[in-house]
Amino acid sequence: MTLLKIDRRLSCICFALLTPAVLTAESPDRFLRPGLAVTEIRIASPQPAGRPILITLIATNETDKPISLGAEPYLGVNWVEVRITDARGMVREAVLENGGGRPWSAGRLRLLPPGQSEQVPALAPPQQAGTYTLRIGDKKAQVTVKYDEQLIRARDAELLERLRHREDLFALHVFQRYPYQALTGALLKDLLSEDSQTAAGALQNLCSLRRLPKDASVVVRKAIEKQLELVEQQAAKNCGISVSLFYLAAKIGTDDALSLLLRVAHAKVAIETRADAMDALGSFQQAEAVRELRDALKDPNERVRFYAARALAQRKDPTPIPVLVEIARDKQSQWRSHAVEALNNYPNDPDAIAVLKENNRAVGRPSFASWWGGFIGPEWLLQDPLVREELKLTKEQSKKVTEIVEQTRSDLRDRMRKIGPGAGLAVASALHEKLHEERQMALARVLTPEQVDRLWQVNLQRFRIDVLLIPEVQKGIKLSADQEQKILAIMHNTDQERVEINETTGAYPEECRMKMATLEKASAEKIMAVLTEVQKKALRELAGKPFDLNADAQNVGKGDGVNK
């Protein structure tokens, strides 16, 4: 009985580490970690005009206890505010960023001892030529920005070399934010390299971009043709590089790129390769791509049928509903849970609704647990010393939890290495779900029922308003079907408004942040207004005794109503 409860509840305990903190201008250090202070700002001068300003922050532990820095090689600083003053005294407000703070990163958890410092890389927006003072809180530094072709080339060459190293996460973030033509062009050339490692590294970097220039189609075509020849020669094997190239072609989206994927769809290649080609076809807008996907719904292989059905479902195309329903009801199918998720695209179809209800899912939107449960398990939350103290873990329990974390990271790295960099989303998802089940079994042998209950409560207090999508919460507060639909409609409208805000204010981070904060608050208030007073009370009781994991965190209890 205890194991079942852990299986249901621990699948949700994950979003806590993803909740972004809101930073005020008066206290920039709070975002890094409670107890950490920015004690120095280092900027190499001069910096090239037209390129982002690269900064190194020195963050010092000013407490008398070690501070957890997470598993990444550097701290995340996204949304830390910086004031940029030019020589005339004109002030511009911007935000620092470095793409850090991803809790699913593999690696050993790092601790910063009292009095010691950590170097944190960050970037500020590009500036025109001139002299500037950058201020973060009460710390400041000066930098000269020059328009110098040699300086620009040197910066690009340095960043390219770091990208080719493939393990420099900060360099990858800089490239994703500012994919200058010089860098993109060099990586496209690398794509045709005879050295497989060089080609794979370039592919990995290029796949991280949201878009590619249309003229990249020629190079990508040559690369796909080269890899396709290898795949066709070894039909029994799946080529991870070729699969990633399919998605690169999908980012371009031209007829030329489409013709190559159609060739793959009819080639004598491994089932995995054909299935991933179907997945990539879903990104093309051409009618020919849709026809190919519909034809694949009759393919004798279930994997190919599912990938084609899921790609069509993302377009809201009703054609694949029977295929998805059949797979979702097949208890032996490895694609069953993914088919259920795909059926969320059809909130008005009676067959889709029936399957979703059979699987205890919120109609019209994937369950919250399914978004994250298989990728970020409860052991990540249990790493926090405050959580361990709250749960009163013994030394032996803490040791076992740490072992589970280390084993999970090791297993994840090993298994991802085996399936290769070109594995499709469904393959990676299935791998994570299997690891998730293994983690549940391991934790069930470590935690007591009382500790599981408290861990569940702590996590609820860290959810945003999406906590109302968790089936157990819905049952606990007796949420009606009508209320659920109203809440889903509010969430859907909020999602659309988020996109609009990003599109209109993305270049102005401070304005974007303020509008997002206003939107989230308004959305939460609308959703809470759907609940009765009795339900609000029940929600507070589910969350249990208030617990503040981090003083800087905006948990649900403070912003979204669970503990209000």
Relevant CATH superfamily of the domain at 35-147: Immunoglobulins
Strand order of the largest sheet: 2-10-9-5-6
Distance between the termini: 32 Å
CATH class of the domain at 35-147: Mainly Beta
Low-confidence stretches: 1-30, 103-107, 362-377, 551-561
SS elements, strand count: 10
Name the average pLDDT: 77
Radius of gyration: 25 Å
Q: Which class do the helix and strand fractions yield?
A: alpha+beta
| CATH architectural name of the domain at 35-147 | Sandwich
- Kindly report the CATH topology of the domain at 35-147: Immunoglobulin-like
Can you summarize this structure?
This protein has 564 residues and is α+β, with helices and mostly antiparallel strands. The protein is built from 25 helices and ten strands. Helix 1 packs parallel to helix 20.
Question: Can you describe what's shown?
Answer:
The protein is an alpha+beta fold and 564 residues long. Among the domains are: 113 residues, Sandwich (Immunoglobulin-like); 107 residues, no CATH class. 52% of the residues lie in helices and 11% in strands. The protein contains 25 helices and ten strands. It has a five-stranded mixed sheet. A three-stranded antiparallel sheet has the order 1-3-8, with no helix packed on it. Strands 4-7 form a two-stranded antiparallel sheet. Helix 1 crosses helix 19 and helix 5 runs parallel beside helix 7. The longest helix has 25 residues. It is globular. The N terminus is likely disordered.
